[in-house]
Amino acid sequence: ADTLPPGLSRLSGVVRHAEFLGASVRYAILVGTSEILVDIPHQAGMRQAAIGAAVTTSAPRVMVAINVTA
């Protein structure tokens, strides 16, 4: 199994939207019932994730906040 370095959290979801911003690509990813935004630096020849594609990203735990609403 693929393990993460200490201090990172893994989030898996589905791409709902992608927006080219020049220096980066911003993805809206549906994780459970919440949508998160992820900016990925753009590189020439980089393949963009398709809308509807299953993706996984990781982030430092200190940057991941979960809001629960009833």
Q: Would you summarize the structure shown here?
A:
This protein is mainly β and 70 residues long.
Q: Give me the secondary-structure category.
A: mainly beta
Number of helices: 0
Question: In whole angstroms, how far apart are the ends?
Answer: 35 Å
What is the makeup of the main sheet? 4 strands, antiparallel
- What series of H and E elements makes up the topology? EEEE
Task: Describe this protein's structure.
This protein is mostly beta strands and 70 residues long. 0% of the residues lie in helices and 51% in strands. It has strands at 8-20, 24-31, 34-41, 54-60. The radius of gyration is 13 Å and the shape is globular. The protein starts with 7 loop residues before the first strand and ends in a 10-residue tail after the last strand.
Describe the secondary structure blueprint for this structure.
Elements: E1 8-20, E2 24-31, E3 34-41, E4 54-60
Antiparallel strand pairs: 1-2, 1-4, 2-3
Characteristic terms for this protein:
single chain; mainly beta; 70 residues; globular; four-stranded antiparallel beta sheet
